[in-house]
């Protein structure tokens, strides 16, 4: 059985005596704002430090409501309800002097547009550093109540603890850097969920550098529209294209939109069988002949001809690529060459115990993809 201590902000600087099961405990809550009863050192004691917002109302769908004698009783109910993070208290009393308590599943920081004036209610929220609005540039403060801390969810184009840093975007000669693929770190691009390709909405990696040998995704991956793509190496400071599309490959789309237009291949959905779902004509240059993933650049295959980059490709009973470079099929060492390659028996992000690489050639188990450089992807 948990004993809940309900504190308004008037008591926040005082240690509070609480009784757990069969014993008394002295709990100093000065650095704590919420416990559901399982915190280290105060196990069996549940408490929250609520602060009031008079004549205010959080207008969201509640999880429960009941009539209570006072705000303290409503606070007890919230603390002992794991999904409760704030509550509204209606000021109008019924015939026996009770008021309506509305338990809420979220807080005013996640629903700032629904936190409104009310002449008949007070709102109570768990005390949080979010009250000082630490997140800049329209970032949203996410309260970590049990730790009396917070994180900032930044809007596109900003990063940092308080969303204070503008995401730098590398541009040169009309080209915008949108992503980087490396085999020298975690296989972010080949995660089973396909998250980086489809859903990631926060920049990761160094977007302002072309020489880093680490995965990167920029907001430009899903925000910047264009017509053509190019691929360069991270160890080439002159940014000479290994490959550049021609003929309006993207047709004015963002790169993410281009890939998503072929279908939803998240979480193990097979993306193709003995084909590429689409392709664009390319011209090669620079160090392409010595770059991993380009070994079949000039091969004329059964599922794709040379001088092409294919999207969502597969061949036979095993292997594929999100972006296959050059020919593919029986004459061109199948389909696992290019960017986002897998040896899965049916081409998908779930490898089934086989191998996969962010880029390279032949994803057979035991093979090693290049780790000495990364590939940069650009849009124009």
UniProtKB/TrEMBL annotation:
One of its GO terms (biological process) is cell communication. Residues 126-164 form the EGF-like domain. InterPro entries: EGF. Keywords: Calcium, Cell membrane, Disulfide bond, EGF-like domain, Glycoprotein, Membrane, Repeat, Signal, Transmembrane, Transmembrane helix. Coiled coil: none annotated. It is a single-pass type I membrane protein. This is EGF-like domain-containing protein. It comes from Pocillopora damicornis (Cauliflower coral). The lineage of its organism: Eukaryota, Metazoa, Cnidaria, Anthozoa, Hexacorallia.
